[in-house]
Amino acid sequence: MLTRRRVLSTVAALAACRGVVAANTLSTASPADPPKRTGGSLLRLSLAGYSFNSLMARRGTPEQIAKAEMTLEKFIEFCAAQNLAATELTGYYFPKQVTPEYLLSLRALTHRLGITISGTAIGNDFCLPEGDARQKQLQECREWIDYAAIMGAPAIRIFAGKVPNGDSEDAAIERCAAGINESLKYAATKGVFLAMENHGGITATPDQMLKIIQKVDSSPWFGVNFDSGNFQTDDPYRDLEKIAPWAVNAQIKASVSVSGKKQPADFPRIVKILRDAGYRGFVALEYEEKESPFEEIPKLLKQLRPLMDG
Q: Which of 20, 28, 38, 56 could lock onto 15 through a cystine, CB 3.0 to 4.6 A?
C-alpha cells in the first residue's frame, strides 16, 4: 500500500531531480492525499462516449441530435451490446438544454440495461483570471456536479486549463487550484468526485500536475483522472506512474505519444501501473483512432478484458 509519507517522499525526490522546486519545500507541504484504499487492485472496464466523437452532435438541439449517427442513448445501447458493465457519458454530447427529466431518462436506460454510469466529463478552464468568463466556468462545473448527482455518476473528469496570453504559469496554477477548491466544496455536498485529468496545458507533465495537487485542499472528493494517452513526454509510462497514486478515475487509449511520436499502447504495462498504485475503479476505453469505432472498439475490448476484473 502507498502511504502518504511514501508518496510525499517520491514527490520530493522527483522535484529535486527535475529542479522544479527544492526538495525540502515539497517534503513539508500538505498536498491532497492519495485516496485511501482497502484490498488489492480492482479494475472494471467502461467505454467513453468520446470514442464516437465525430458521429455525435455537440450540445445540439433535439433536431440536431436526432440527425446524428450516434446519440447518448444509442451509445448506451452499444455498450450493452458489448457486454460492458459501465459507460462514461461525456458531457459534450448532452443537449444544449439539459433537464432533470432527460438526466433521469439516461439513468433509467442504463439501469434497465444493467450498466453503471462510470462518470461524465466537462471541458472547463480554471486558469482564467477573475471575471465573468471565470465565473461562468465555475457555474458550469456546479451545474455538472448537479447533473452527475441526478444521473448517479460518481465522478466528473475536469480539466485544469492553459496559461492565458501574457500570464505566468505559476499564477495560472494558483487560480486553477483555487477553482478546484471552490468546486470541491460543492461537489462534497452532492457526493461527486472531481478528477483532474492530465490533459495538456498546465497538466502536460507530472511536475505540473503535482504542483496543482500541492495546492488543492485535502478532500475525499478530489483525485486525478489517469489518461494513458495524454502525456507526450519522453517516457509517458514513467510519468503515468507518478500520477497513478491519486487516480480516482482512469482512461486507457489505443496509442501513446513518446516525445510527440505516436505508437501503439502497451496495455499490460498501463494496467500494471494502475495495479501497482492499488487503483480500484473504472477504466474507460477512450477510442481516438481514425478507423471506424464500430469495427475497432470490439477488437480493443477483446484485448482489454483479460487484463480487467470485470
A: 20
Digit-coded pLDDT (tens) for 187-230 = 999 999 999 999 999 999 999 999 999 999 999 999 999 999 99
The 10 Å CB-count burial string (b at 16+, else e) for 151-184 is: bebbbbbbbbbbbeeeeeeeebbebbbbbbbebb
For residue 11, pLDDT beyond 60: no
N residues, the chain: 310
SS3 257: strand
3-state secondary structure of 34: coil
Whether 103 and 151 have beta carbons less than 8 Å apart is answered as yes
What CA dihedral angle connects 47, 208, 3 and 227, to 10 degrees? 10
- Any idea which residue has 471575471 for its cell? 131
- Give me the residue label for grid cell 433509467: 108
- Check: CB of residue 209 under 8 Å from CB of residue 203: yes
Strands 255-258, 193-197: pairing kind: unpaired
Q: Are strands 255-258 and 261-264 parallel, antiparallel or unpaired?
A: antiparallel
**Residue 229: CB atoms within 10 Å:** 20
Compute the distance between CA of residue 115 and CA of residue 153 in angstroms, rounded to an integer. 11
Could you tell me the pTM of the whole model? 0.88
Cell of 116: 453503471
Q: Extract the C-alpha cell encoding 211.
A: 504542483
Using the structure block, give the residue that is written with the C-alpha cell 495495479.
275
